[in-house]
Design brief:
Blueprint: H1 7-18, H2 22-29, H3 31-37, H4 44-54, H5 57-68, H6 75-96, E1 101-103, E2 106-108, H7 110-126, H8 130-134, H9 142-163, H10 186-207, H11 211-223, H12 225-228, H13 239-246, H14 259-264, H15 272-304, H16 309-329, H17 338-360, H18 371-400, H19 404-432
């Protein structure tokens, strides 16, 4: 029987999910201003992508500790640390974002890059912490969580839209376009970002302490015994632990299985159908992560800035707005079949290929200086972001029924795919100089 979803718990989980990527998304949303003010210029997105992938050391260390030192890798306490450090780093960034350091006779925005690295470690680690934590709850709460993750892009986007555009217009853009300065400074923007982190932290505290939230966990344990096995053993005894202990272990179903057992366990032959589903779902996640977190962010400035900073601004912010809207769409139009998700992934690859080709034409892409060209590149980026957001929430909803371990591997595959995509686009740009600023 389907579980009812409590509206208050859903709201708290949404606000908690907002803290997953709000820090680094805040930096991305501010790129139209940062690229015009910092010495790295158009190369700043590429540097950020590499920094984010280097930050995958965070989830790697946590995953190892989770497997071998589980008592030292509590999901709950690690989430608290992520949210607290993100709050502190955002405050520091508001004060030091424009500080420059001279290295080898070249100026570098080392403070911003370093704090962005801290953001990246925290947000990358959240992929292998927040998702497994959500295995404690019924699957109906997975969509609010992903809506919250979408809000981690929307809220910085709204702040950036309110701030307004800035910077220089590319010489290929319309000659009679003008650019006004921002309504408030970058320091104020990152100060507001710290408030978003604080909001997410308070929501997570309430998720762990309010009765209505704890009751949702208990109900999940009673209705699905496999999830009782995913409750953290290191946490102090609570009524939840008592319920977990009372579950009959003989009733454990297939949904409690570990991903390793599906591929390498003694009963892998009996789990062939599950293995094939995992292969399809994890492949889809790896592809959209490689493109969405590695490739497209690194070259989007080359695809958009020839049309002007306002176009780049709108392409970035409206795409972030599309994220939670498409996650919310999964409430009404769910897609749980791996072949269909694979088809949607193919559509994403086609859209991404068009964006990449447009970036390779910089500084003179098609229809530059025209309204049609500006609208087209904005629309492509919005469609791309919305499509991958819809795919991610549906894949996670399918994997959630297999418990914490399946979601942990979802986070691992996401970060691995992102890393591979970032390395590929960096090598291409370094060796071939395919993407040229104007």
């Amino acid at each position: 029987m389907a579980m009812q979803v409590n509206l208050s718990v859903s709201l708290l989980i949404t606000l908690f999910g907002m803290g997953s990527w709000v820090a680094i998304n805040g930096v991305w949303a501010e790129l139209p201003l940062l690229t015009s003010k910092l010495p790295e210029g158009w190369n700043l997105p590429t540097y950020l992508v590499l920094i984010i992938q280097a930050a995958n050391i965070g989830p790697i260390v946590f995953t190892i500790m989770r497997q071998y030192k589980k008592d030292m890798a509590s999901l709950r306490y690690t989430a608290y640390i992520i949210l607290l450090l993100g709050f502190v780093a955002a405050i520091l960034l508001s004060q030091f974002w424009d500080k420059e350091v001279e290295m080898n006779s070249k100026k570098s925005s080392l403070p911003l890059l370093f704090l962005s690295f801290i953001f990246a470690i925290l947000d990358c680690t959240s992929s292998v912490v927040f998702l497994p934590f959500m295995a404690k709850y019924p699957s109906g709460y997975m969509i609010p969580f992903y809506i919250g993750e979408g809000l981690s892009g929307v809220m910085p986007s709204l702040l950036a839209l309110a701030q307004g555009t800035g910077g220089d217009t590319c010489y290929n853009a319309s000659s009679n376009s003008t650019t006004e300065g921002p309504r408030f400074g970058v320091d104020v923007y990152f100060g507001l970002m710290s408030l978003l982190m604080a909001t997410s932290g308070v929501a997570f505290y309430l998720v762990n302490n309010l009765d209505i939230s704890l009751n949702a966990r208990y109900a999940n344990i009673r209705s699905s015994s496999p999830h009782a096995q995913s409750v953290e053993q290191e946490e102090s005894p609570s009524p939840e632990d008592n319920v977990s202990a009372a579950v009959d272990t003989n009733e454990i179903k297939l949904t409690n299985i570990r991903v390793y057992e599906v591929f390498c366990g003694e009963n892998r032959a009996e789990l062939a159908s599950i293995k094939w589903s995992f292969v399809q779902l994890y492949s889809v996640i790896a592809i959209i992560a490689a493109l969405g977190n590695g490739v497209i962010p690194a070259i989007l400035s080359y695809a958009c800035l020839p049309y002007g900073p306002t176009v780049y601004h709108l392409a970035t912010e409206l795409a972030l707005l599309a994220n939670p809207l498409c996650c919310f769409l999964a409430f009404f139009v769910a897609c749980r079949r791996p072949p269909i998700l694979g088809f949607l992934c193919s559509v994403c690859v086609v859209i991404a290929s068009i964006i990449i080709y447009t970036a390779s034409l910089s500084p003179s892409p098609w229809l530059v200086g025209t309204t049609a060209g500006s609208v087209l590149i904005i629309l492509l980026n919005v469609l791309w972001t919305g499509c991958i957001s819809y795919i991610k929430v549906n894949v996670a909803s399918v994997l959630q029924k297999y418990g914490e371990n399946a979601l942990l591997f979802c986070g691992i595959v996401t970060q691995l795919g992102s890393c591979i995509g970032a390395i590929i686009i960096f090598v291409i740009n370094l060796k071939t100089n395919s993407f040229k600023p104007c």
